[in-house]
Amino acid sequence: MTVQGTGWKNDLLLALCATLVVLGINAVSGFPTLANYGADNDSMLRLVEVRDLLGGQSWFDLHQYRMGTSGGFVMHWSRLVDTPLALIIMAFDALGASTGAAERAAQIIWPILLYGLTIFVLMRASQRFAAANVAMPAIILSTAALFFLVIYSPGVIDHHNVQLLLTAASLWLLMEAPSWRPAALLSGICAGLTLAVGMETAPYVAVLGICAAVLFVLDDKERVTARGFGLGFAGIASLVFVATIRPADWGVAQCDAFSSFQFAVAALSGFGLAIAAALTASTARARLVSMLALAVGVAAAVMLFFPQCVASPYAGMDERIRTYWLADVIEAQPFWSVAVHQPKLMAARYVTPFIAILLIGFQLRTRRLRREETLAAILLLVAFVVSLWQVRGSTFSVAFAILPLSAWIAKIRLRADAAPSWRLSTGLVMAWLVSLNATWTGVAIAAQSMVQTAPQRINSDPDHAVTCGKPADFRDLAAMPATTVLASSNLGSGILVFTGHRTLAGPYHRNVGGNLAMLDAFMGAPDAARAVIEREHVGLIAICRGNTEEISLGLDAPDGLAAALLRGNLPTWLELDQSTAGKPIEIYKVR
Questions:
Q1: Among candidate residues 284, 179, 191, the one with its CA nearest the CA of residue 230
Q2: 139: exposed, middle or buried (C-beta count within 10 Å: 0-12, 13-18, 19+)?
């Protein structure tokens, strides 16, 4: 397959057409992800964070004052994602749109824009991977895969879609580096930005940086690539550090968010790579020694100044929060848990990356991989390994799998065109089918329907869980005077975005005090719950009857307050608001 791919303008046009089709499908169906947020707590809290910024909260202040115990807690997210959303809302405000219409426009425009850009990037990477015209399979596979990932649906404004776009762009640009001089610099910039947005992408950023360094060691011609990547990575990290961290906090290290720790690692490794690429002698031994010295220097700096960040990211988490929250967060589940409890999710997230890895393995049996193929294969394999630890890694492995799958389909199509036969035609159809996530999802649904079981834990069956994610579900609560609401963590973000109340619990690992207070209240006996409610000045209790979180709390603490409310056994100090009886969210007033 030596035919060159299509031009970038053609790929951009195809990506635009695919994006408009998806936008049309969402519009015709009434934007269902905006009508019902479901369990998308992150998108709801992101909107709250943008509202706070537009309402006058400091750029450097990431406190969420309306969630948690008194004083709230500091979120670990980045203003880099808040900014474009705020700008879109401000633009529509300036045009005379209402606040609600402006927010709705931002919730549609931003994820759809990211959708189109990600399709374009994956198409360009697929063309580079195959060194052939694979535009048609690439656009179909990328559009379908990203659609079923859901992270680009209207209303999804958290940060996972931004991270996938930037990581895929960094890979593509590193593949392009030998033929386009600015590509390496831009690749480093994308890698630095995705790290600044969230630490979930740290493994992929590390792999991209290591690849740039290894390429330099193996080939002196990659000197320019290494220098450009290093400068871009360190330069953007320095800019983000100054722009998003207040000077008073420059010395504070946060292991779960961009801070002095991430900045120091990026600056040392990035500038170190650039300097080594510029000054190291042209011998392979000298290049290897310089890269080993850089690796030792960065590792020593981390161990000396930031030893706390070497431990597991959840090492210090309270055991009760680990048990009753983290253990049931879908994106944090390991492969074996997903395979047993959510076969549909397992089929949609793991099968196509596994097939793509097999294809690369078969290719290795016949020939040596080219530079571009090697880079994509390494990142795909790393993403797949991460997904075995936590399902969130599958977001990246599904996207990277598009590259070898597109090349595979295009190769079969060329053979079928050159020598038509029913076997090749059948093989082409089968290649298309097994490369689509929808196929495997359908197989899993059919299999699951034969042995369907009821959900027993939080998020154990998201398709059948009651989430209370519709704006109308919170209408009665919003009409009541502002107070602190006791509710399960899965209702926390909805309470903030749809009402003027504050709430104790929310599905965020930094909200330790609020989540523990919620567990103490809901799992404790009514008298113990009353003590927590008085201490935290709770005025209302909200129950989403049928929500799997409340069900699991009631099952684990049958004598607790949550179990009593689910049974209809109210303590004397609680009164049900009769207007909410039987509604998705029932409200209890504290006497």
A1: 191
A2: buried
Q: At what angle do helices 422-435 and 135-149 cross, to 10 degrees?
A: 30
pLDDT in tens, 120-161: 999 999 999 999 899 999 999 999 999 989 999 999 999 999
Query: 503 pairs with which residues across the strands?
Result: 67, 485
How is residue 574 annotated by DSSP? E
Residue whose token pair is 């571009």: 372
Region at 96 (left for phi over 0; alpha for psi -120 to 50; beta for the rest): left
Calculate helix-pair angle for 182-197, 79-94, nearest 10 degrees: 90
Report d(CA 410, CA 22) in Å as an integer. Answer: 24
The Cα angle at residue 344 between residues 341 and 346, in degrees rounded to 5: 75
Strand order in the sheet with 574-576: 502-503, 484-486, 538-544, 585-590, 574-576
Given a contact cutoff of 8 angstroms between Cβ atoms, the answer to whether 572 and 535 are in contact is no
Residue 464 has pLDDT above 60, yes or no: no
Q: Tokens for 250?
A: 């420059």
Residue type, 260: S
Residue entry with tokens 């004598």: 559
- Residue 344's pLDDT band, with cuts at 50, 70 and 90, is confident
In this prediction, residue 455 carries a pLDDT of: 44
CA distance 79 to 235: 18
- Rounded-to-integer distance, Cα 550 and Cα 483, Å: 21
DSSP conformational letter for 255: T
Quick check: 33 and 153 in contact, CB under 8 A?
yes
Q: Tell me: the pLDDT tens digits for 531-570?
A: 999 999 999 999 998 888 888 888 899 999 999 999 988 9
Please report, rounded to a whole number, the percentage of residues in the chain having pLDDT higher than 70. Answer: 94
In angstroms, how far is CA 244 from the centroid of its own chain? 20
Quote the CA–CA distance of 269 and 148 in Å, as a whole number.
Answer: 36
* Residue with the two structure tokens 């530079």: 371
Asked if 311 contacts 293 with a C-beta cutoff of 8 angstroms, the reply is no
CA-nearest of 472, 456, 475, 474 to 464 is 456
Residues in the chain: 591
Residue 89's nearest CA partner among 117, 29, 48 is 48
- List, in sequence order, every residue forming a beta bridge with 502; answer none if it has no partner: 484
What Rg, from alpha-carbon coordinates, does the chain have? 25
* Other residues' Cβ atoms within 10 Å of the Cβ of residue 1: 12
The whole-angstrom separation of Cα 230 and Cα 267 is 9
As separate numbers, helices (DSSP H) first and strands (DSSP E) second, the chain gives 26, 7
- Separation in Å, CA 286 to CA 116, 154, 268, 273, 293: 43, 51, 19, 13, 11
CA distances from 118 to 146, 184, 248, 418 (A): 9, 19, 36, 32
Cβ neighbours around 254 below 10 Å, total: 17
Beta bridge partners of 540: 485, 589
CA–centroid distance for 204 within its chain: 13
Alpha-carbon distance 291 to 210, whole Å? 9
> What Cα–Cα distance (Å) separates residue 552 from each residue in 317, 547, 588?
20, 9, 20
Give the count of alpha carbons within 13 A of 190, CB side only: 23
